[in-house]
What does this fold into?
Amino acid sequence: MRDALLELVPDSPVHTTMRGLLLDPTTDLVGDERGACVIDRARGLGAVIGAPSAATLASAAGAIEWVSRRPWPSLSGAWERARVAVPRSIEGSIEGSVEAVSLGAAHDDVHPLTAADLSRVESELVPELDRTLSRGALARARTKDGEIVSVAYVVTATEAFADLGVDTRAAHRRRGHARAVTASLVAAVIASGRTPVMGALDSNRASIALADSLGFVLAGSLWVAP
It folds into this structure.
């Protein structure tokens, strides 16, 4: 089933989470002839592919953040649209160059995240970041006064795209930390040969503003059930 689904799910910005989860052989699949759910239960992340039956959706239910191309009331009662953005396009194609992104100056206090840094990260982020590092995904951190105040990391990746996650300590927000650390990660992702993808719920104006400030433009939309 996994190979058949990979034939159906394109390598595109709006499908990055779905295809990225499919490419991970450790994820679970629940499906039928109409569609499937692919689930990373360790991370609490899942994606709906195609149009699976209500029975299939019910069998996949759990403490999962779902991503889908359409809301599924039988899976969750709370869906919100999310904006998917990529570096600005040139003549309709994604421009995979640093020049397409408004990165600004590099910051000396932004560095690659390592396992040794996890003791200085907010505790609720440690499991996710530990998994990120264990699979060799790119991650960046910003340090202030010995404390890691913001992190950016690759959540899922496909052959051509990398979906980014960003988190900043509440007491340090609105000070440019998220932009600095994300700009560094964006440059690293582009240098690795992939195009960065940034997703943000319509209600998350701060995340949308961050993507806009880096020169990202709308590529499509998804539905998310937090």
